[in-house]
């Protein structure tokens, strides 16, 4: 028999935190807390395999599930002393989703399940509070109708608004028991009218409806989008946790809240959270009422006059503090907790590793090493390399005057400027058109997720630090100011009303997600400083990693930036980029358009000093670190004008007939230029170009060695080699120039000549090519293009379709295709090293900055990765994680 159901509660549990793959994160952690003897309402978890079954069997559940769930409910009845459907002491249930990794707000939840026209009376009687019972019933109907029956919750919100107006009430809390009972009746009528059947009264029917709906919500559009954004496979499925309800809305001694054991924004070691007195479930995160601080210190910090939990419920607060310490020590990580206090009694509803900003993640990791909780290597493993992007967000220059038009909570760090849009759809359109926008909402909901992703920043006027906007923005690394109560959104007229200003759609604002301020217009920004915890972690990462990290840099600006990010040399200098600047393009064109070699040499003589000074500067910046310079690679027509107007303009500037120029451009036209006259083929057709470049490199090496005193060892790289003979030809030419320059200068320069491996033939013949090549650098952009036979310039037209249709998961131009391109890399590395055991192997395609691809490079035993300057920190951390990971594999 398949075990579909695992129970927990009363100090014991089937399963533990280690079982998250089949119990889901929520179910696994509830089981763990129950086993630790913490106060957890009893419950059961239906495993993720049941979700898989559900989708593989036409959305039906396994036959033997029912009996197992009923057994689990019996166990819950035994612990609580209540009965499911019992009309005198009813057991009420919550039904929640729980995937392997948390997907906040993406799937559906039903609370207060088990209420019907009879049990509501009993609940009121037991609680001594009929108002509470009817309020709970109407909440249940509303949630169930929305989640299970597909009736828009707006319908119920409208009824409630109308009735409140009729009764003359402003707040929900003003309604009496009788009034809630009346509203409940209206809700049921609406349901019966729209569906032609009454709201189900049988708790078992309700239960199976809710379980089915939670499984169905795994495939709802927002969950699908979320999974896509976070690379969560659809096969994982969700578990369903059914748990006995506890109530935070039983009057002034009850409450519900969420808390982090450390500050999720800054990482500071202080309990951080929010709660609401007399509230249920989602009230805190929904941002409907502004929540109160948990600790007195946080209340004072925020300047709130609403009392803290520490003040209003000191005993529950003290117990909660003890549980926080216990859980943090147990899991050795910052925890995100949900709790409810029912008439003074604390219940834990959820514990999970807390989501945090990168800044907080780094502080927490560094602090936990200092506290002796984790090792340096564990600290390195705890930072998601891609999240380092967040650190690279600019901040507002503190010296500039700020025109503040509002303020809210500093919900997600970094500053962002953009034009105001009020809907997620507008944000998406703007992003597609390349416009920068700030998404301004009263509050966000999971439906807004695509717009949040597209925006530069998010501003909400309602909700706390744990509101949807705040949690999602932090996860995405997008600056966010939440709950800006000093501002108002007038959606009807598309206006944002701030302090002293009213701004319409399209007006530019800046939000500072680190201070919570909202500023008018665009503001000067500063680049972040990469010191403190970041520097410490990077130092640990550098200690742990085996591969070195170089950068792809063609200009002094890039090279300097890369050095400041810790690059250990240049892995690829694309020399062609140097020919596009200023009047160089003109000289380059002269060279390309020259009639013969003599003409080309005249132009090349003009280019030589320019290249030499470029290289001298790069060598000086890299101060003895390796610098790999690649000979000219692109097809020559890339330097020529394209349209008729451009041709006319260039012709007149060059004092040449437009028609003649047009003929030359036509003559250079190629059908498949990426597979055409480029790479080493240029050096073979026009050796004088390669000679000039080699001369520039060696003369620069001499100059830089004399200037800086550092040993400069240029690595000259030949692109697009497929045949050893190609490399032999170009290498002979380079060696000849080297010899000449050294004789002229009277100085010996060590240098290497190597090749890019970017053609399958080169990979397969690596053992032969290695006889000539002193190093290999995998040009995985071209190697992906040539292995797949997919043009790298045209791939974006259909790769997204392939991804949507599940034909490929990842764009192979972004994340290396391990199976195909990766196999060629392994073959080339192995064969190359067989011929030349000490040869240096690196990667310089875009994949050199992609964490998953870097893990591959570690496993293929490459010596270095090279990536764009801003990805250097990501590569350093990824390389360290890969090294620690592979060391762990060897150990165990
Ligand atoms: C490559 O092909 O991977 C490479 C680095 O060269 P380029 O992108 O310049 O063709
Ligand atoms: Mg290439």
Textual characterization of the structure:
The chain has an eight-stranded mixed sheet with strand order 13-23-22-15-16-17-18-14. The chain is 45% helix and 17% strand. Strand 15 (415-421), helix 16 (424-432) and strand 16 form a beta-alpha-beta unit. The protein folds into four domains: 51-244, 2-Layer Sandwich (Dna Ligase, domain 1); 255-356, D-amino Acid Aminotransferase, Chain A, domain 1, CATH 3.30.470; 394-526, Glucose Oxidase, domain 1 (3-Layer(bba) Sandwich); 545-635 and 670-891, Alpha-Beta Barrel (TIM Barrel). By secondary structure, the chain is an alpha/beta fold. Helix 6 (153-167) runs antiparallel to helix 7 (177-195) and helix 33 (851-859) packs across helix 34. It binds phosphoenolpyruvate and magnesium ion. Magnesium ion binds at residues 719, 758, 779, 781-782. The active site is at 468 (tele-phosphohistidine intermediate), 844 (proton donor). Its EC number is 2.7.9.1. Its cofactor is Mg(2+). Belongs to the PEP-utilizing enzyme family.
């Amino acid at each position: 028999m398949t075990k579909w159901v695992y129970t927990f509660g009363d100090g014991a549990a089937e399963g533990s935190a280690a079982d998250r793959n089949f119990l889901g994160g929520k179910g696994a952690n509830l089981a763990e807390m129950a086993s630790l003897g913490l106060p957890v309402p009893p419950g059961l978890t239906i495993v993720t395999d049941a979700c898989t079954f559900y989708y593989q069997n036409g959305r039906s559940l396994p036959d033997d599930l029912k009996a197992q769930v009923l057994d689990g409910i019996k166990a819950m009845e035994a612990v609580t002393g209540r009965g499911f459907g019992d009309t005198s002491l009813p057991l009420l249930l919550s039904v929640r989703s729980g995937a392997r990794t948390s997907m906040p707000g993406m799937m559906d939840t039903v609370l207060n399940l088990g209420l019907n026209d009879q049990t509501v009376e009993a609940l009121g009687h037991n609680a001594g509070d009929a108002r509470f019972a009817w309020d709970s019933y109407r909440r249940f109907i509303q949630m169930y109708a929305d989640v299970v029956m597909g009736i828009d919750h707006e319908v119920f919100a409208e009824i409630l608004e109308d009735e409140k107006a009729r009764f003359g009430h402003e707040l929900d809390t003003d309604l009496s028991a009788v009034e809630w009972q009346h509203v409940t009746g209206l809700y049921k009528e609406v349901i019966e009218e729209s569906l032609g059947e009454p709201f189900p009264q049988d708790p078992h029917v309700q239960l199976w409806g809710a379980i089915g709906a939670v499984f169905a919500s795994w495939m709802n559009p927002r969950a699908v989008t979320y999974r896509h954004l976070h690379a969560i496979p659809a096969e994982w499925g969700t578990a369903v946790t059914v748990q006995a309800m506890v109530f935070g809305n039983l009057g002034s001694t009850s409450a519900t809240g969420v808390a982090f054991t450390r500050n999720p924004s800054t990482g500071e070691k202080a309990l951080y959270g929010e709660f609401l007195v007399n509230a249920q479930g989602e009230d805190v995160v929904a941002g409907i009422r502004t929540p109160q601080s948990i600790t007195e210190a946080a209340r004072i910090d925020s300047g709130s006059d609403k009392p803290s939990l520490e003040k209003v419920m000191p005993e529950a607060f003290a117990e909660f503090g003890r549980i926080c310490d216990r859980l943090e020590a147990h899991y050795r990580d910052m925890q995100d907790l949900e709790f409810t206090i029912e008439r003074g009694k604390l219940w834990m509803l959820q514990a999970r590793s807390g989501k945090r900003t990168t800044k907080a993640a780094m502080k927490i990791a560094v602090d936990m090493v200092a506290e002796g909780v984790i090792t340096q290597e564990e600290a390195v493993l705890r930072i998601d390399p891609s999240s380092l992007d967040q650190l690279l967000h600019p901040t507002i220059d503190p010296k500039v005057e700020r025109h503040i038009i509002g303020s809210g909570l500093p919900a997600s760090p970094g500053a962002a400027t953009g034009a105001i849009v009020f809907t997620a759809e507008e944000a998406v359109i703007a992003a597609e058109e390349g416009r920068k926008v700030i998404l301004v909402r009263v509050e966000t909901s999971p439906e807004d997720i695509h717009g949040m992703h597209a925006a530069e920043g998010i501003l909400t006027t309602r909700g706390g630090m744990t509101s949807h906007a705040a949690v999602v923005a932090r996860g995405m690394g997008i600056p966010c100011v939440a709950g800006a109560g000093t501002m108002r959104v007038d959606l009807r007229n598309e206006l944002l009303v701030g302090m002293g200003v009213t701004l319409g759609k399209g007006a530019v604002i800046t939000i500072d997600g680190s201070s919570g301020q909202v500023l008018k217009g665009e503001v000067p920004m500063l680049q972040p400083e990469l010191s403190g915890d970041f520097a410490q972690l990077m130092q640990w990462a550098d200690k742990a990693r085996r591969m070195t990290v170089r950068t792809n840099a063609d200009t002094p600006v890039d090279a300097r930036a890369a050095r400041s990010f810790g690059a250990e040399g240049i892995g690829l200098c694309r020399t062609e980029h140097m020919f596009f600047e200023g009047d160089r393009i003109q000289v380059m064109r002269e060279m390309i358009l020259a009639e013969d070699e003599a003409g080309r040499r005249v132009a090349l003589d003009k280019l030589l000093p320019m290249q030499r000074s470029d290289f001298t500067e790069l060598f000086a910046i890299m101060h003895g670190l390796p610098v790999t310079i690649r000979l000219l690679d692109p097809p020559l027509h890339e330097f020529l004008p394209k349209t008729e107007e451009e041709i006319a303009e260039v012709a007149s500037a060059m004092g040449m007939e437009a028609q003649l120029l047009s003929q030359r451009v036509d003559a250079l036209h190629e059908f498949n230029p990426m597979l055409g006259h480029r790479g080493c083929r240029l050096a073979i057709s026009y050796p004088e170009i390669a000679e000039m470049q080699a001369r520039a490199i060696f003369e620069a090496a001499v100059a830089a060695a004399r200037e800086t005193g550092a040993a400069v060892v240029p690595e000259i790289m030949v692109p697009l080699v497929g045949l050893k003979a190609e490399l032999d030809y170009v290498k002979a030419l380079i060696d000849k120039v080297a010899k000449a320059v050294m004789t002229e200068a009277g100085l010996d320069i060590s240098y290497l000549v190597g090749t890019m491996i970017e053609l399958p033939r080169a990979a397969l013949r690596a053992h032969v090519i290695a006889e000539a090549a002193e190093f290999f650098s995998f040009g995985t952009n071209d190697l992906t293009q040539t292995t797949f036979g997919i043009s790298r310039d045209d791939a974006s037209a259909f790769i997204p379709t392939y991804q949507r249709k599940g034909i490929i998961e990842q764009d192979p131009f972004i994340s290396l295709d391990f199976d195909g391109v990766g196999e060629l890399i392994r073959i080339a590395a192995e064969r190359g090293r067989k011929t030349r055991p000490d040869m240096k192997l690196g990667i310089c395609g875009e994949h050199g900055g992609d964490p998953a691809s870097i893990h591959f490079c570690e496993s293929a035993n490459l010596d270095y990765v090279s990536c764009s300057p801003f990805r250097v920190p990501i590569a350093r951390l990824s390389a360290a994680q890969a090294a620690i990971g592979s060391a762990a594999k060897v150990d165990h």
